[in-house]
Specification:
Layout (H helix, E strand, L loop, with lengths): L3 E5 L1 E3 L11 E3 L2 H9 L3 E5 L16 E4 L23 H16 L4 E4 L1 H9 L4 E2 L23 E5 L4 H6 L2 E4 L6 E2 L6 E7 L4 E6 L5 E4 L3 H4 L4 H15 L11
Parallel strand pairs: 1-4, 1-5, 5-6, 6-13
Antiparallel strand pairs: 2-3, 7-10, 8-9, 8-11, 11-12, 12-13
Helix pairs in contact: 2-3
The chain binds manganese (II) ion.
Length: about 250
């Protein structure tokens, strides 16, 4: 059986001609394509009450945390910075609860952009709410080039799971104005851009978690490195034995 990959839904918050009530739960097609073409079966999970999130865990083999709105900074004990973008607390609450339950159950996790940020916050880390808060950040991380094209490089730590997949320097896309600040105790930084922004993290303990700040799903069609990230995630989801779980409190 192919591994089942859960993707917590993003929420379209505007009313349209077709969706005449606000709030439609969705997942972007590039993520669905990347999962299916890599041999996984995608499942989209709507943001339900966080106390019910653990009920979903038995339904999937791997958890793919995708991009979306900014994270409500109260989850890392900060007030909103004036450059904070749109937030949607309901999704934050659900994703944090689901992620903790999935980690506890030993399920492999891949985080993309906001997804990596949610992983860090859920495990006790903090974010720069806007890159203007990071005195070192100089590069353009919110590219205006089409999203399927790479625009800046990342330097990858040798010996990491990520470097075994794509080597020690990679050319990636970049669509974020937030970034990881203090790292969660159970995570390690495995890639940075040339200006020092954290671009990828892994679990310190094992191969359970990989998060990237860029969007491999948007380069998947034509970029072998993006394909390698998804192939690795599907493979990890196919073979979950031996993962010990991080304490998630
Ligand atoms: Mn970037």
């Amino acid at each position: 059986m192919k591994p089942r990959i859960a993707m917590p839904a993003d929420t379209f918050t505007e009313a349209t001609n077709i969706i005449n009530e606000r709030n439609a739960e969705f997942a972007p097609d590039p993520a669905i394509q990347a999962v299916t073409k890599s041999g996984g079966i995608p499942i989209i999970l709507p943001s339900i009450d966080p106390e019910d999130a653990p009920s979903y865990v038995d339904l999937f083999d791997g958890l793919l945390m995708l991009g979306g709105f900014d994270i409500d900074p109260t989850f890392f004990n900060e007030e909103p910075h004036y450059n904070l973008g749109e937030t949607y607390r309901k999704r934050d609450l659900f994703e944090i609860a689901l992620l903790k339950a999935a980690i506890k159950a030993g399920k492999p996790v891949m985080g993309i952009c906001r997804g990596m940020q949610v992983i860090n916050v859920a495990l006790g880390g903090t974010l720069y709410q806007d890159l203007s808060e990071d005195p070192q950040a100089k590069l353009k991380h919110n590219q205006q080039a089409p999203g399927n094209l790479p625009t800046h490089h990342v330097n990858i730590q040798s010996g990491s799971m990520l470097s075994s997949l794509i080597g020690e320097r990679s050319y990636v896309n970049s669509r974020h104005h937030q970034a990881l600040h203090q790292l969660a105790p159970s995570l390690q930084t495995v890639a940075k851009s040339d200006d020092g922004v954290i671009e990828a993290v892994e679990s310190k303990l094992n191969t359970q978690i990989l998060g990237v700040q860029w969007h491999p799903e948007n380069m998947f069609k034509h970029n072998q490195e993006s394909q390698a990230l998804f192939a690795n995630f599907i493979e990890r989801s196919n073979n979950v034995s031996g993962l010990s779980s991080i304490q998630t409190a």
